[in-house]
Amino acid sequence: MSARRLSAGRLAVALAAVALATGGPGVAGCTPGPRTGAPASSAGAAPDATGSPVPRGFDCGTAIESLAAPPDDYLVVDGDVAVPARLSPVDAADQGGDDPRARWFAKFGLIVRAGATAQLAVGPQWTDRAAVEWGSGDSPSATVRVPACPARDPARPWQVYAGGMWAAEPSCVPLVITAGTTEATVLVGLNRRCS
Predict the structure, then answer these.
(1) Who has greater pLDDT, 170 or 23?
(2) Residues forming beta bridges with residue 107, ordered by sequence position
């Protein structure tokens, strides 16, 4: 398998045309239940493989699978993070719950190369209407910071995490991915087609 790899310059052009699929082979995850309570904080926890504090809620041990490479239908950002290449529309289910940002959930796998750090966040103007969640069982939050997780299997260095995006209602929500020196924005269409 060889995933699409784009330079920072070509990435911005390619992401404008991205539409959502529900994940590729081996990237299914658990379906979350209704949510209650406050969103997760970003307070530090135990250190990662590099000794840096791991943001509360992200657990490297929650990887559901290890891969030799991301699937062909995933877009790789700066060689470290992969998300489905088509993110519009993605099926979103009404989960109910008390958090108004976390009513509708769209599940898709996040794939991160072992040892890489990344950040995934909803666009700044969406923090009161949307949230993200991977690598944890904690409440959804506006930002997920992925620490430098070790490889479970050196021959399969890409770690797969279950999770996805939450929103107050079906809509097109910007997902800002920061990996290495690249920041890319992908529109995630929760039961909507985004242009």
Answers:
(1) 170
(2) 164
